[in-house]
Specification:
mainly alpha; 64% helix; 0% strand; globular
């Protein structure tokens, strides 16, 4: 969800709305077409839980695996080239990565 949100440059509220109305998002998220979605505050709580459990490293590892950050260096996730590179990934690739992450219990 957060990958799609970042790729589209959406607020939490906008991303939650897309999860309700966009068929491609529903497919990528693995939810039924009739799914009624969730409250936007869930995204904020998710990010807090990731940080509280040290899971933010998973995000950096994935960015490193696709060449968006360099090993051993300091990197800001709001760096222009990182955001630009994420946007350059095509939707099927993003959808595939999202499904893979969800399948592996890391989504």
């Amino acid at each position: 969800m957060t990958v799609l949100q970042c790729a589209e440059d959406l607020t939490d509220r906008q991303a939650a709305a897309m999860a309700v109305r966009a068929i491609d998002w529903k497919y990528a998220l693995g939810v039924e077409l009739s799914d009624i979605g969730f409250d936007a505050s869930v995204l904020c709580r998710l990010r807090a839980r990731l940080a509280d459990n040290g899971m933010e490293r998973v995000v950096f590892d994935r960015l490193q695996n696709v060449g968006l950050v360099a090993a051993g260096g300091k990197q800001r996730t709001d760096s222009t080239h990182v955001i630009s590179a994420v946007r350059d990934l095509n939707r099927p690739e993003l959808a595939g990565e999202s499904v893979r992450a969800a399948r592996n219990g890391r989504g």
